[in-house]
Design a protein that fits this description.
The protein contains 12 helices and no strands.
Length: about 300
């Protein structure tokens, strides 16, 4: 079963374009697969990925509650707003716990980030290292959003940034540089525009476009959201949507792009909901309520007669 999961099951899921099914698989299959640790070697590598996906499921639920919170505030419904905020914190708390678990499995499977770079036995090890770093970073971010109730050590962020330097930035879609930029911004006492951070993010986005994986777009959007540069956030969302054809070329990691698309959509939904009270309309991702309409050439009816 473990051999099948690693050799066939996980690659099949990663090549899927249905993030919803990937989410259901992670939440249902993780405890079943990990139960084999009672009778065989623990599938530590697989747990790194599965807990990342399960954490993303919790994040999606938290985002929905955040949208409910925004609408309740706009409607001046304090009870609804308070309830939505509590529900949001519960889900980000759950996400942080799951992602922290994934990060801890990374330590068992390969090594603890922050020290000397490990000797990766294969490309798969590099992939799981990258996913484990994302687990650690998201665990810190979500724990902060939950009020610290998951007790995720803040020092993980600095370890993740150092661990990202162990990977080839070109090979892994620009994500290592995006991780370092995100951590530098998060740890800064006065996060604001920094030329080095912006350069890293721009390079990461371009590499992601070239390689056909959009994770760096999401991380860049999160960084700019954190410093309040919503103009740049809109630009990145627009870039991501225009690049969808480029991302579709990567058949091996379709699921990662679908998850990135969901996260970009949720960032867009937050912008739309704060401005209009409703989420991004269907088929309008990449556009915004305040876009300047394109000039329309008028036709003189007399010319048609």
């Amino acid at each position: 079963m473990l051999g099948y999961a690693e050799d066939q099951g996980i690659p099949f899921i990663l090549a899927s374009d249905d993030a919803g099914l990937g989410c259901d698989m992670a939440t249902a299959f993780t405890p079943f697969l990990l139960s084999f640790s009672q009778v065989a070697d623990s599938p530590d590598h697989l747990a790194v990925l599965l807990y990342m996906m399960a954490g993303n499921c919790s994040e999606i639920k938290a985002w929905e509650q955040e949208l409910r919170y925004i609408r309740a505030v706009q409607a001046k419904n304090s009870f609804e707003a308070q309830d939505a905020r509590i529900a949001q914190q519960r889900f980000v708390h759950q996400a942080a716990l799951r992602q922290l678990t994934g990060y801890r499995y990374l330590i068992v499977a390969i090594a603890e980030p922050g020290e000397e770079c490990p000797e990766f036995a294969s490309e798969n090890d590099e992939f799981y290292w990258l996913i484990g770093l994302l687990d650690g970073l998201q665990a810190v971010i979500n724990d902060i959003a939950s009020g610290g109730h998951a007790n995720v050590p803040l020092g993980i962020a600095a370890k993740v940034a150092r661990g990202a330097g162990c990977l080839d930035n070109q090979k892994w879609w620009g994500v290592p540089d995006a991780i370092q930029a995100a951590v530098w911004t998060a740890l800064s006492e006065n996060p604001s525009h920094d030329k080095q951070t912006q350069r890293l993010l721009d390079q990461a986005i371009q590499i992601g476009l070239d390689k056909g994986v959009g994770i760096a777009h999401v991380m860049a959007a999160q960084v700019y959201w954190g410093i309040g540069d919503f103009k740049q956030v809109k630009k990145i969302i627009h870039q991501f949507v225009r690049a969808k054809n480029s991302f579709s070329r990567n058949q091996t990691y379709k699921l990662l792009n679908e998850i990135a698309l969901l996260q970009i959509q949720m960032i867009s939904d937050r912008l739309w909901t704060e401005a209009t009270g409703k989420r991004t309309p269907m088929a309008k991702l990449g556009t915004f309520w305040d876009d300047t309409p394109y000039p329309v050439e008028m036709i003189d009816i007399d010319d048609l007669l």
